[in-house]
Structure formats: structure tokens, C-alpha cells
Amino acid sequence: MEMHQVRYFLAVCRTLNFTKAAEECNVAQPSLTRAIQKLEEEFGGLLFHRERANTHLTELGRAMLPHLQRTYDAAQTARQLATGFKKGEVVHLRLGVSRAVPAQKIAGVLGGVQQAVPSLELTMGGGADAKLVEEALAGDLDVFVTGDDGELPDKVRSWSLGREPLMAVMATSHPLAAKDKLATMDFDGIDVIELTNCPLVERFRHLCAEAGATPKCLKRVASCEHVLSLVREGLGVAILPATMVEGGGIVAKPIESMTLDRAITLGTVAGRKYSAASDAFIKLARTRDW
Q: What is the model's pTM?
């Protein structure tokens, strides 16, 4: 698969007309058609139903569209950054990341930023979501990533990067580990380990109270790593995003009677000029699968 084939495919998706797509891409129609056919051969099926006045995407075409769009956007971002980058210029990124955001996801985005901006100078801090927003508004952060989509000030521009369910995490030896799914009342009288200053904790407590369950919330810990360590020791159950659950000795169970999820949110202060590094992080983060 070559990038010009992806560009031609996206042009046909926009115009639903091979002739107009060829004009938009400044290429002869036969060349565009051959490029689309090569993509179809590679993917093993038709991407478009070609009807005289009704060209439209096939089921395979619809499935491939978001993936090819992200691929093209990421390539364009890298090309634009490389073109505008001045060799030897240090570009600073001040990044704040919530405790509830997977570190490996952030590292993956930063790897892409480093490739686009070789002289990246990074300062990365962490903390509760509210603290990160305050630091950004005060001018101490260029970009932040929070672990939920709580209400943000009007001055903040934000993008939702993805949603995921919260799971009940416990040691494999815990009495609840034998269940396939948990009900809200299963938490009644159960020791729960909380992540300090996490808005998801308040939502969990509220839903338990509505159902008449009273968990024992007596342990509060400042980092997900320490929460998981206490869970492994059998000190209690934790409510964490699915992507934060890793390592042996623990299991994660869905909570069937409780609608509880979170949205990883990217934010910056509206109206501020982005550095090349900030711009790269925002664009690359929005193209990743979270």
C-alpha cells in the first residue's frame, strides 16, 4: 500500500465520483482507477460499488475508511512538521498527564513527536485532572491529558481520544474473583482501594449509594501502580480503566449493573500559539487508537 493510493481512495470517498476525484488529485482518471484497483487487490475485495450515477462504498470500504484516514493524517502531520522544522532548533513541550492514563499510550505518541521534532525538549508532569487543568490555565503546561471528560472551563479546548469501561480489579485469590460478572451489591462491605483525587471514584461511590451498597473505602493511594500493588496483596478491590490493568496475580471483572466508563481527554488552552512539538503531540494523539 502506497500513500498516493490512500490519497486517491479518500478523494473518491469524499466525491463519490472517480472523475471528480481524479481532478481533485490532479491525476488522470485511469491512473486513479488503477491505484484503487491495486488497493482492492491488496485488501481482497471491492472498496466501491461502481454504478453509473451512484458510486458508493462497499462494506469493506466503510470498514477501511477510518483506518486509512488516520494513516493519511499521521503521514501528513509528519511531513508538515519535517518541512517546517529547522535543524538544531530546540522545541519544548510541557506535558501534563493524569495518573489514570496508560503510560505506554503516552510514550507511543511521544515517540512519534520525537521522530518529527528531533530536538524535542520534554518536561512531563502528572497529577489529578483538576490540577492539570489549573496548571495549563496558569501557563505552566502546553498540553494535558486527563483520565475523564469532566466539565472543563470555557478557556480550554479539548478533544475526546477514546472511551473505555471501568473494571473491578482484584487479586486472583479474592472471593469475588470466582464470579464472571459483578453486581453493584457485590461491593457491599467490600474493601475498596481508591485512587486519590480521581473523579471516577466519586461516580463509583454515588452509584453504589443509589443501589444501597456500602463499600469500605478506607484506603486511598496516589498512583495506579501502588493501587495495583495493594490489590495484588489482597488488601481490596480497585475500580480502574481496563487499559490500566496489567501484570500477574490480578483479574478484572465487568460490573454488569453499573454504567461506568471514562473518556481519555486531550486539552490545551484555547487561543494559545502551539509550538511544533505541541502541534505534533495534539495531531498524533488524535490519530492513535486509545
A: 0.61
